[in-house]
Amino acid sequence: MAARKRPASEGASTCSKKDCNGIIHDEDARVEVAVSLRGEPAHADSRITWQDGAPMAFHRSCWDSLLQKRASLPRDDLQRLQLAAATAEYFDSAQELRQKAQEAASLLRQSSRAICFTGAGLSTAAGLGDYRGKRGKWTLEGQGVSEAYTTVYEELRPTFGHEAVAKLVEMGKIRYVISQNADGLHHLSGIPYTKLSDVHGSAFTEYCPSCGKRYVRQEYAPEDRAEDFFAGRLPGPMPSHIKVCRGCGSNHWTGRSCEDCGQPLHDTVISFGDGLEECVLRPAFEHAAEADACLSLGSTMSIGPSNQVVLIQKGPLIVCVRQEGCAHTEIAMSFYTISWWTCWAKNMLNGRLPWIRRRRPTMRSGLLLVKSVGTFL
């Protein structure tokens, strides 16, 4: 008897390998890419259904087959496949996720001093862009595509991934969190700064270089008008507090003053060319040196020096990221999707998952005063 075909689910797509052209279901292992064809049509002998700039999907087996047999592909297909491979995002099948989730939960249960390292991929579900992948900032720049930056940071809310990390910290399953994200979502999810290092700063934190006092704000702290003044896009005299940073070429002064000493305040967001704050980096390395396991979420672990925490720790490294080719090879387990949290957290939390009502809590002196937590079965 012929196998019954599964009906296409709402989020299903079609495989772009022409001799397959089959339905890719949500629970299937797949690869998603995007490539700019710059208006050039595909040749008649092409073995791939190319989409100009639009997302394309392949069964994982079809994608692997194309890579293995790329020497036999038409020249145009080969060139485009190489470009597409640089944008590839990988997704495990539902069956693989369940198995890996159980194994990852077992590894972390056996640890007593686990740390968590997070990157931009954890916050894409919150509405923030990442750098790699099919719609990553660096991918689009390489294709000559420029997208307007429209993020309103005050409207961002923690994702389920952030909430799961916060719950694991609360339960003592994760001792410390080291994040390369400057969105402030880990702190908003309830993780105190005694258990969190925002190594690339936070858009909601500013500090006084004179006396060292730090302020956690409810509003976005950096002075974004500086870039427009530097580029001549804003008329009128430039505010006196805006100054060019020798390290990154941008501005870090916020225009506000310290409540204690009255000196100008400085934002904490790190740009390329800036040095990392020692008071934030030191506890991250100290906890990493004592760690017996590391959970890395949404990062290829390629940006230093903070990425060194995954090497300093002495236990298994569990990686959850959509890209292949992570900077570190000593990996105990890899997940190819962030959504594995739903499956894995059930194993860690005995089937009870946290959730947050999507409103920004009242914040004062860096402490969360109100936080609504429920149970998601």
UniProtKB/TrEMBL annotation:
Q: Which UniProt keywords apply?
A: Metal-binding, NAD, Phosphoprotein, Transferase, Zinc
Q: Does the keyword Cell membrane apply?
A: no
Q: Which GO terms describe its cellular component?
A: nucleus
Cofactors (names): Zn(2+)
Question: Deacetylase sirtuin-type domain location, by residue?
Answer: 94-377
Q: Which InterPro entries match?
A: DHS-like_NAD/FAD-binding_dom, NAD-dep_sirtuin_deacylases, Sirtuin, Ssirtuin_cat_dom
Family matches, as Pfam families: SIR2
Question: What molecular function does GO assign, one term?
Answer: metal ion binding
Q: Which residues bind Zn(2+)?
A: C208, C211, C258, C261
Provide the active-site residues from the annotation: H200 (proton acceptor)
Similarity remark: Belongs to the sirtuin family. Class IV subfamily.
State the protein's name: Regulatory protein SIR2 homolog 7
Q: Which organism is it from?
A: Symbiodinium natans
